Amino acid sequence: MHEMVKGSNVSLAALSENVGSVIVGLGWVSPSGEGDADVSVLLLDTNGKVRNDTDFYFYNNPVAADGSVQLLGKTPTADGNEDRIGFDLTAVPADVDRIVVAASRYEGARFGELEDVRVTLADGAGEHLLRFTIDDADSVSAIIFGELYRRADEWKFRAVGQGYEAGLAGLATDFGVDIDDDAGEAEGPESGEHLETAVPTAPAEALAQTTALEAIPAPRRPSGESAAGPRKPAPRPRTAKKKVTLPRETRKSLAENESWKEARLFPVSVLKSDRDREMRATSVLLSVMAQVPEFGRRLTAAFGAPAGRMETFTEVSLPHGDTPRRPDGVIRVERAGKLWTALIETKTNGNSLRAEQVQAYMDIAARRGYEAVITLSNDVALEGSPLVDVKIDGRRKHKVALWHLSWAEVAHQAQMLIRHEGVGNAAHAWLLQELLQYLQHENSGCHGFQNMGSAWVPVRNGIDDETLCQGDARALEVVESWERLIRQVCLGLGGELGQKVLPAQRAKRGADPGARRARLADQLCVDGRLQAELRVEGAPGLLSVTADLRTGRLRTSVEIPAPDQGYPLTWAKRLIRRLDEAPADLHVETLVEGEAGGPRGTLERLRPEPADMLPKNTATRITGFRLSLLKSMGSGRGNAETGFIRSVDDAVQRFYTTVVVHLDAATPRRASSKEPTG
């Protein structure tokens, strides 16, 4: 990988021949696990300005109509999360001279509070070509990480690392974006209508979304337009046209009784074998991808595919020695006369991918000049721990990327579109709904990660009888399965809420994923616990999940900070009122400064006497409150009613919907001591 320093530049063509599409990743590490930032992209002309306000891409304008820019969202990595942006450089308009890639923090937070602030760039085959680490990020709240620019019909990348104390608004204004100080007024009626249909309707969820939208001022109305007069629809993709989402509550059925089953576009009753499930699932998915452009593009953009006309195929025969190979499917995307092709290998019902089969498809793809092989199964891939090991022939000029997609991710993306973000028309929404119904049916075999592995029972037994020793490979296997489960839980909860839900890592800079998991495995041998933290957009704190294998109990909890103003008794009473509909067995603990713990009790006991939450020593400073729910965890390694996987998923869903949803949204962070006071 090419390591860059501030101010340096490099030709992309000198690093790879496959740079028609690239993926830029912006990453950082938060020591507390809570730090985050929003990415943005600006397309500039030869004058160094945006051509119009729609050249400014951020969370409320994430996709270019021509497919040249797509904000792909956050992806868990070994040492935190990485925000990825897909660029189809072949689709960038000719009058765009530079592409600026930036990120900004909000609510008074600064980049100096984060570690390992970096940008990476990968080619169409997924190979990382360059990396630039910003070491001097301090009191700034926005940073230009780098820029892609044209020189003599080729693209180059420059490492910039320039900070802005004025934040994203100041950065955008410098490049010619018109910013209005009143975000709500600028959004206008059309925007408001769309947002009402695209965001959750629960009060706490709506508040969280509103807070996020107001973090960045929206572009002003076009010049000369009267505020009171008729307004033309804004050209921004998220506000220009009201998109279609499906209602959360289904209409009352006209069936005579419950034995009548609604006719489905993709029936599952005839599926008898694993081969039937694989063939049906592949055909269903690929057909919907080809017919619903928003969905197909969302899945393939992360793999470096260009934006263009997509066709999908099944029952394809390709020559391979004496015996032709038949991949489960093929995706082809055409743009500007060029083809991007990916072979699909599918597994369902928890079946594992076979290395020799994937290797054969990699060889076929390399010989035929295809760009990618995509594996699709119930399993969840982890960074640094590939699902299948394949050999890459370095002598081949043509590179083939190997990507993995889980059925849980497919369902998540479908749910995000039809429940929260919307699609172009009602027919597309209905197709996605039929796909989701199919994936969620018990007979489809597309149920996501559903087995903790063969090491689960021996590890639990070893913890019970205290015979499990540090360094045991089985403990590492359980830790990897736990990480896969947590990532899937995030997808499920995020799809329900329509918000970003990601694992929060408290890793140190440069942490190796294998070494980190080895430490967690040793810790499991010592205390018998599996732990994870989830960052839910808009939640007042990290959602913690702990599975205690010694006691067989699951704990879900969240810590909320104490308010900056007011009296402790007022805080306690207000918290109890907010939790009026929460479970009576919710544990409430007062967190105090300099002590192991403060007063604690169940919500049932504290409701009549909120003052019992206060320390007896009135001089003791309260720093916050910890809310926890306990439940028995499943013992089985699978996803049955009594299984461990089902119990973890249920615990997280119950805790969020009965506790966290009633809490106030995240409050502004206190200013860091490193921030200037003037």
List its traits.
15 helices; six-stranded mixed sheet; 678 residues; alpha+beta; globular; seven-stranded antiparallel sheet
Helix content: 25-40%
Unreliable residue runs: 181-241, 668-678
Q: How many strands, what sense, and barrel or not for the largest sheet?
A: 7 strands, antiparallel
From the alpha carbons, calculate the radius of gyration and give it in angstroms. 26 Å
Note the gap between the termini.
41 Å
Structural class determined from secondary elements: alpha+beta
Shape assignment: globular
Q: Could you give the count of β-strands?
A: 24
Mean pLDDT: 83
Architecture overview:
- The chain is an alpha+beta fold and 678 residues long.
- 28% of the residues lie in helices and 24% in strands.
- It has 15 helices and 24 strands.
- A seven-stranded antiparallel beta sheet has the order 18-19-20-21-24-22-23. Strands 1-10-9-3-7-6 form a six-stranded mixed beta sheet, with no helix packed on it. A six-stranded antiparallel beta sheet has the order 2-12-11-8-4-5.
- Helix 5 packs antiparallel against helix 9, helix 8 runs antiparallel to helix 9 and helix 8 runs parallel beside helix 11.
- The longest helix has 25 residues.
